[in-house]
Each structure stands twice: as C-alpha cells, then as structure tokens.
TrEMBL record:
This is DUF5017 domain-containing protein. It comes from the Bacteria. It comes from Pontibacter cellulosilyticus.
Length: 381
C-alpha cells in the first residue's frame, strides 16, 4: 500500500485539473488491479478514536450513538485517507454505546402493602390488581413525587382466576416506573440461601451466576441487549438492606453490568464534493401488525391478495397466475405506503432497508432498500 501512496503523491504534483483524482484512480486501477480499490472496509482502532481530541469518544473508544458516529467519523477518514477522492466508498466498523451504566443506584427505598382503602381510592371494585398496568398506575398515585432511581417493594393481591398475595419490586428509571426482577424465597432456596433469604459478602462473586439462573429460568423471549434489574436482600454489618444489580443478556446468558456496554456497529460513507457523507439507512423488519396494516388498505394490491396477506402474514409470490399473487411492483408500493405511515416526517433521500416475509414455493425472507424521492414516493435503489 506504501507504493500506492508514494505514487499517488507524485501524481498529485503532476495533475492540476479541478478534479485530478478520477484520472489517478484510473491509473491506479490499471497498475495495481489487485491492490487498489475505491471500496474499502475498515475497523476503527484505539488510535483512530484518539484522533478526535477533545471529544469523549477519544477516551471512551466508542460513540454515544449512530448519529454521533455519522458526524465524527468523517474527521477520522479525512485524517487517515486524505488522498481518497470523490466516488470513494468506505464501510466503517466501530463501537457504539448500547447501555449506559450509571451504577446500581437506589436514591430512596420504600416497602409498602396495598390496603383495601388504596384499591377503593384507585376505583377498583375488588381489593386486588389484575394487570401490570394497574400496579404502575398505583405507584404513580402513591408516589407522585418519585425521584430517579427510587425502588419500592410492593405487597399486593393479584387476581388470576384466584387471588394471591404477591410481593414484587419496582424501580423508577428515566421518569417512569419499571417492574424489575424480585428475588423470591424460592430463588434463595434454589441456591441454598433459603435459611435467611438473603445474600452476604460470601456470595459476592457468585451473584452474577445466581442471577443468570433466576433470569434464565423466569424470563421468556429475552433478546440480546435486553437489560434487567434485580432486587435482592443483602445482609451486612448486622442489618439487611435491599440492593439492586444490573444484568444484560448476550443472546445466550445474562451477564453482570459493571461498566458501559458497547456493541459493534457499521456505517457506510461515500465521498462526494470532497466531503465524506454517511449512509444513515434505517433497517427494519416488518412485524405482524405491518402486514395487517397493508392488508387493510384498499389502495394497495388487490382484494384477493390482501386477504391472502392477512391470513398468512406474507406476500404470496409462487404463481404469477394466481389471484393471491403479489408482483414486485405491488410489494414496493405497499412498502412505500407503509413507510409513509410509519415515518411521515422523513426527508428526501432517507433510505430504508426493509426485510419482509414472502412465499415462493416455501417461506422466504426478502430484503429491499427504498429511498424517498423528491416527488414524495419511495423507489428501490
């Protein structure tokens, strides 16, 4: 690669046209067809982040968001690849903040048992709750001035065919109450801590193991990146306190969070008019509700193929002669209409990479990228 850079420097002294790089690229392509490319894939290293002096990313080695990465990575590209001209495209792999860890903070704590008077005050006919929303509504009523990181252990009656006395934990985070995992007596017994129903300093190293077991056994459908807060009792210095522990799911198991969590991310950039511009494509996989929305829209497809879509949740594309068939044009029109409904404030040039389900001699998934045009319509790119 040094040969290329040296050659590039000498050529830059020779060419004096307004945009000499196009000729340089052509010459490099001819002389070094197996080495030089205008399409690159790079992964940022520590030294690359450190180029952004004065920015938090220079010390953290991650970007706080995709937006921040889109704004700052061009500076890195300019410094590392000043010789690259218009038309160059670069795919950049980088670290992005996935979860900001602020410590296992509890700013205030309360234990409360809901009374018959409380249920009546909330307008309940019976002295119980029968949905998670009702518990949240009660906490909003009971603690109207809740402060960030407040934790409440609530005892209440819950109806699921029969009425049961339940104890559960709630955490006030980002201005809203959140139901968190409460370690039960059965949980303590499961890890041989049932005598006192608490943990001690002797358990510190094992807490992530214990909590992974509890969460894995009780939380169904967890996805990588999900964060769960665990409420547990801890005995130390002759007294029992109620603590908090943060866990994150990696797709296989739950792990302790002790610092900010990052995740790999990728952005594409292209150099145009001497400026690196990001490709902020939104990636989205259609959900069941999206197919139903399309199926209920009489302006899309035909009545027959919309009915088929509503029944099966995919676009039928096996037999073009079937009345159930969705042509590619019809699908694109349907996806465009869906995007206008979901993202009404999109700007011209915004791209969406959509993945949808289809049936073509079997169930398949298809990915297509649409871009919003100046006429207000979406077109495949």
């Amino acid at each position: 690669m040094k040969k290329i850079f040296y050659l590039l420097s000498s050529l830059m002294l020779v060419f004096t046209a307004c945009d000499p790089m196009e000729d340089v690229y052509e010459e490099l392509d001819k002389q070094y067809p197996d080495v030089y490319t205008k399409d690159m894939n790079i992964e940022l290293a520590k030294k690359d982040y450190e180029l952004l002096k004065g920015k938090p990313v220079a010390k953290n080695y991650y970007f706080a968001s995709e937006k921040e990465a889109a704004e700052l990575i061009p500076t890195i590209l300019d410094k590392n690849y000043p010789q690259m001209g218009n038309g160059t495209s670069v795919t950049v792999a980088f670290n992005k903040l996935a979860f900001e860890f602020k410590g296992n903070k509890i700013s205030s704590f309360a234990m409360y048992t809901v009374t018959d008077e409380d249920y009546s005050a909330m307008g309940h006919r019976f002295s119980n709750f029968d949905s998670s929303n009702e518990m949240i509504e009660f906490l909003e009523y009971k603690y109207p001035d809740a402060v960030e990181n407040m934790k409440v252990i609530l005892t209440f009656d819950y109806y699921t065919g029969t009425t049961n006395r339940v104890r559960d934990a709630f955490y006030f985070l980002n201005g809203a109450w959140r139901n968190i995992y409460f370690v039960t007596n059965d949980d303590y017994a499961l890890v041989d801590r049932g005598r006192y129903d608490n943990f001690t300093s002797a358990d510190d190293d094992m807490l992530p193991v214990f909590f992974n077991k509890f969460l894995s056994d009780n939380i169904i459908g967890a996805e990588a990146g999900d964060v769960e807060y665990v409420s547990y009792a801890y005995f130390s210095g002759g007294k029992t306190t109620h603590k908090l522990f943060t866990m994150i799911y990696d797709g296989t198991k739950w792990n302790a969070v002790t610092e900010n969590v990052t995740t790999p991310a990728v952005l594409a950039f292209a150099k145009k008019d001497g400026v690196w511009k990001p490709d902020l494509t939104v990636r989205y996989t259609l959900a069941a509700a999206d197919y139903q929305w399309i199926a209920s829209n009489p302006a899309l497809g035909t009545e027959t193929n919309r009915t088929n879509l509503a029944n099966y949740g995919n676009f039928y594309q096996s037999n073009p002669n079937s009345s159930n068939y969705w042509s590619n044009e019809q699908i694109v029109a349907a996806l465009g209409a869906l995007l206008k409904n979901k993202y009404p404030n999109s700007e011209v040039g915004q791209k969406y990479q959509l993945t949808y389900a289809a049936y073509n001699s079997g169930n398949i998934t298809v990915t297509v990228t649409l871009e919003l045009q100046s006429n207000g319509s979406y077109a495949v790119i």
